[in-house]
Amino acid sequence: MDVLKNLEEKAFWGHEFLTWLWYRIETGDGDLDVPGVGAVTLWVEDRMTLGSLDTESKENILRNGEVARSAEAAAALAVGKKVLSVRLGLARGDREYGLTLSGDTFDLASVRLPKVEPDEDGEWHGTALVRYGLLREVLDVVDGLFGAFVAARLSAEWPQTVAAMSRWVATKEGG
Amino acid sequence: MGLLSGAVRFRRYQVLGAVDPDAMERFADAVEHNAFEEFRPDDEREQAVGWVGTDDWFEPGLPSDRWWVGRTVCLTVRVDTRRVPAHYLKLQCRKTEAEWRLKAGREDLTRAERDEIRAIVHRRLLERVIPSCQGVDVVWDLDRREVLVWSTAERMNETVRALFERTFGSRLRPLFPYVLAVRAVGDDRAELLDRVVPASFRPEGDA
Asked: Which of these, A27, A65, A171, B150, could form a disulfide with B137 (CB 3.0-4.6 Å)?
């Protein structure tokens, strides 16, 4: 399978996931139980891009402020656009992260990690392992959430989820 | 900015194929063999690519204790690029061709002569170019068989994939959403995913 070649065709998996995640965050106060990880809190930060693979309409690039609650975001959802990328905040225990997740590739950008004190002996291996461990925590959360989305997407209850998400979109539009 | 400090951006890969238990010894040779080599004075390369230590890109030598960290391989791909500005090269070639014509006492130069002049001028100018230097950290988690590449630029990722595959003999598959979906359901159920078509979340009744 040529993954790069099929990227555009299969990109909807990432876009639907990010849209579903936004819905889950807003309808559950951001407290999520992530399979394999446990309880985390997620929130949408100050950046989001919405668009559509089906139409030639322009992307909506939203920056600054409460983008998730903006009228532009609601209007974009209402015409069938999905989330192409989003900046998220993540808290697990006393650790807080920030990350921008691309729906096309799942590339992570501008990842903000908790501060790691440098090794006292000037060695760097400890710093590398601790920072890598923190990144793994972020990846485990993304993987756990995406696994839950895939299970929901393939389940018999998916039509009900779509209906609930459509009502959520209608509420946002009206609200 | 990368593994050791600052904000982070990366692309994630799955390492295809099994890794030998005696990987350490084999990797040590392979990493040394593919270590970064500085441009030499007579070097005609426009780009130099190779492994360097994540802690110090300019310190030579890559013994395994510099990059074998826990159960991970931590290395940096250094990419030095030097390019002669095309317009300046053209002007210098024109100037040198004029000198050759004068010396040869002819109006025209052959195609071979013009090619030779271009190569000479290009080599001479290349020596004067200060290369740009980029580094991209790479972490290979052997237990998870995953690699993180500290760049999301496709061209840089291509360079990293090629060096990784040349060094370790294993291919890298980007962990894009569909690939992760296949991993979540298992290869034997992957065909289920191919039946899925995009959903619409537009409110019912909207045109």
From this structure: B150
